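wait is this the right file?? whatever heres the structure
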């Protein structure tokens, strides 16, 4: 499927994108977040969790050192950061794929090399800096459906399509 490009120079735009996705996410979905340090992966996840019902006073720390944080909101959410891992066995041992099969939503920073271990069929959110831009794509039936069902919302945000 094509890639969707949205300029997200403002934090509010990143929050709007999280809002649109949050409405349609179901248990078992997989979001893989990539982009350089400071590009907004954790900021996006925080916005998504608040949309899914997390209380505003709850903190959403980066899981860089702890690997996985869990949240019980509208969905059971696992927020992971795999930056510090270096091979697929380590990822497999975290058991995230099994948790996903049991209905958890996975939001995984630096997860792109481990898509297979996470069970594939992912929505990819690639956060680019200078200028800030979000490039979204999907690689399986569920994730393709999830992104394309938002067509009108993305267009309203000024999205352009590639391919
Ligand atoms: N448009 C934007 N979208 C997301 N974050 C933004 C934006 N503009 C500024 N920021 C800031 O950039 C930083 C992104 O940091 P973070 O989400 O931790 O990055 P990452 O997890 O990708 O390393 C935050 O301090 C956030 O406030
Ligand atoms: Mg981060």
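ok assuming it is, sequence goes like this
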């Amino acid at each position: 499927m094509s890639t969707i490009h949205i300029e997200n120079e403002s934090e509010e735009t990143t929050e709007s994108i999280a809002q649109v996705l949050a409405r349609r996410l179901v248990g078992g979905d997989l979001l893989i977040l990539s982009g350089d340090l400071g590009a907004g992966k954790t900021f996006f996840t925080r916005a998504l969790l608040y949309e899914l019902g997390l209380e505003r006073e709850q903190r959403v720390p980066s899981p860089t050192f702890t690997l996985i944080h869990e949240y019980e909101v509208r969905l059971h959410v696992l927020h992971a950061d795999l930056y510090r891992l270096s091979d697929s066995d380590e990822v497999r041992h975290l058991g995230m794929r099994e948790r996903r099969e049991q209905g958890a939503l996975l939001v995984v920073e630096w997860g792109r090399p481990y898509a297979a271990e996470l069970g594939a069929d992912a929505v990819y959110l690639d956060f680019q800096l200078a200028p800030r831009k979000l490039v979204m794509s999907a690689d399986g039936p569920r994730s393709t459906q999830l992104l394309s069902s938002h067509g009108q919302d993305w267009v309203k945000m000024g999205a352009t399509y590639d391919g």
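Residues 3-162 form a domain with the Rossmann fold fold (CATH 3.40.50.300). so i think its the right one actually
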